[in-house]
Amino acid sequence: MQADGKPGLRVGVLGAGSWGTALAAASARAHPTVLWARNPAFADQLARGRENTHYLPGIPLPAALRVTGDLDRLLAHLHGPDAEALVVLAVPMAGLDAACHAVAAGLARHGLAQASVVWACKGIDAVTGRLPHEIAADHFGALPGVSTGVLSGPSFAREVAQGLPVALTVASADPVLRDRVVCALHGGAIRVYGSDDVVGVEVGGALKNVIAIACGIGDGLSMGTNARAALITRGLAEISRLGVALGARAETFTGLTGLGDLILTATGDLSRNRQVGLAIGRGRPLDAILGDMTQVAEGVRCAPAVLALARRHGIDMPITEAVCAVLFDRVPPQEAVSRLLARDPRFEGGDR
Predict the structure, then answer these.
(1) Is residue 251 helix, strand or coil?
(2) DSSP H helices in the chain
(3) Residue 73 in 3-state DSSP?
């Protein structure tokens, strides 16, 4: 893959939360980029104030970044002489289906038959249990010239927006899409690696949030760093087992979107999922925790869907099961830990 800039590359980012804003700002440093916000008033505030005071306060937006609340304006921006169009869906998992529907209809309406679409959300649909690529296929499958993929990796939006180093992975079956994402974002403090294991990248990104909640609970209970290391390691084994059952490659889970993202989310203070676990371990009820949050902790929504998938495929996931018991069955955290410790001894390696 080439990281050289492409003069004809035009980028549109949907979602003006912390991650969408950070990605749009990174892209705007080298390529014409438009950021779309669902709320037109919020879009106007960003355009005028040049700062996302709600999600990334204190970090100025690049002067070249344009902001709009009109999706058709973003799509019109993707046209141009010899233009190569890249759309980044930086919306929460719960909003991915609606975003794919709107973008697919918009691409067809604007005649953007060769666009690339990549999503940056991490999760599993809480109702249907579908992975993001399955949702995208429902909408973009009728547009054969539109390629799709996923952008993931260990990344806190605030650090990316501050220009601190980060390594990401873009996964797609289409090398053209991978090249476009590399050209849009790779450079300076950002490294972008390519992969064709879409399922593995999506599973790693989704399930690490659930394990991060478990690690937060353990830390909230003052279980110590030994316990945290055990949860991360055995949590990675759970992620790998389910991922491989769903068609992923095992080696993906030792990379950025597996082990890397898990370590960051399970230990980093900026992790919303870890913070949920910490608060639960310290005795706060889930409803109160979520009520105080301004951004989504995807692991809470994802955990039941993960457990349902695991049971459907006959995969043992005791940590995920314990997290669900604490979150939704009102099992006291200490009791859930006791159940984990009381499990029969196992042989480490494989499913023995």
Answers:
(1) helix
(2) 18-28, 40-49, 71-77, 96-110, 132-140, 157-161, 175-185, 198-220, 225-245, 261-267, 272-281, 286-291, 298-312, 318-328, 333-341
(3) helix
6 tagged catalytic: no
Cα–Cα–Cα angle for 216, 130, 123, nearest 5°?
A: 25
**Closest C-alpha among 147, 129, 127 to residue 137:** 147
Residue 72 and residue 194: Cα distance in Å, rounded? 30
Catalytic pick from 77, 208, 241, 272? 208
pLDDT of the residue at 2: 39
Which residues of the chain register pLDDT less than 70?
Answer: 1-7, 350-352
Phi, psi at 68, each rounded to 5°: -145, 155
Q: Whole-number mean pLDDT of the chain?
A: 95
Under DSSP, the state recorded for 111 is T
Closest CA to 123 of 245, 265, 299: 299
- Classify 252 as helix, strand or coil: helix
Residue among 273, 275, 251 nearest 262 (CA): 273
Give the Cα separation of 263 and 258 in Å (integer). Answer: 9
Tokens representing 212 are 């991060």
β-strands 66-68, 147-152 pairing = unpaired
Contact of 181 with 118, CB cutoff 8 Å: yes
